[in-house]
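Dear Dr. H.,

I hope your travels went smoothly. While you were away I took the liberty of generating a structure for the chain from your last submission, since the lab meeting agenda had it listed for discussion. I wanted you to have the full record in hand beforehand rather than looking at slides cold. The sequence, exactly as received, is reproduced here:
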Amino acid sequence: MTGFGVSPEVGAELVRALAPLRAALRRRHGEHIAAVLLYGSCLRSGDVHDGLVDLYVLLDRYGGAGLPWWQAVANRLLPPNVYYLEVPDGERVLRCKYATVTLAEFVRRLGPGSFESYFWGRFCQPLALLDARDPRLAGELARLQQRAATTLLGRALPLAPPSGSVAELWRTALAASYATELRAEAGARTGELVAWGRDFYERLTQGCVGALPGDVQLWEADSGLYYTATLSAATRRRARLAWRLRAAHGKLRALVRLVKAFFTFAGGLDYLAWKLARHSGQQVVIPDKVRRRPLVYGWAFFWGLYRRGLFK
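The corresponding predicted structure, in token form, is as follows:
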């Protein structure tokens, strides 16, 4: 339908390529799907058969949307739930992991009232709208993405130098958001994201510059868009403290989400081992006792992986 950070042609091609997954999601969650969003590495590469497709599924409500009652409760207490889905696509297979959250909760967590960067950090990335029940939702999502960008940049701007390129500002902002999660990717990933979508991030910045803290000015140069930000020393100190708290808070919640995913994500442990090995180059073996009782033995196992540096 619509691309946010991708061309209309690429967006339309992705909609066609992922039609089998869209149909399977409709069968699983019925008419309670308000929208389906694509983001992540498959969007950037354009190859939907390379790894797992990353999707958001925005629901009207959790109850009655094809979720068992306990999963609906877990989704409400700590969104999102993460699920696995695969469907045949000719001689190949389409595979995805998708997150479920209600549209109302999604909107709420993109704004400045949300301390955790999980949602507003992710939704600042390029994405494509694969499906929407209401055609007007495309325009609303563009506005929401601008809101998420305002939240992220407003909180990350005090971490950045007083002046520099907007690309570097976004690398700082995305790195701060990444640091609040348990991530297997190397630190260079934020630079790759910004380099791939530089024009997209510059447009987002132009759209929210008036709502950023302090006195922020933008100007164009041959090499891109640049900024100057005048902020008080106290503002910068408060921001650094807030991000330290956000990192501790976010990593704890990420660990709880990971444990929750053991019960919603089919093959979740094997996917985790594959992803960690792919990004670290180290073999990851899941012990049998962790498979049998992840809530009992998973904590020590994950602490060991963390100590080995497989995620940060």
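Two observations you may find useful: The beta strands are 2-4, 33-39, 53-59, 81-89, 92-102, 127-132, 163-165, 215-221, 224-230. Residues 2-258 form a domain with the Beta Polymerase; domain 2 fold (CATH 3.30.460.10).

With kind regards,
E. W.
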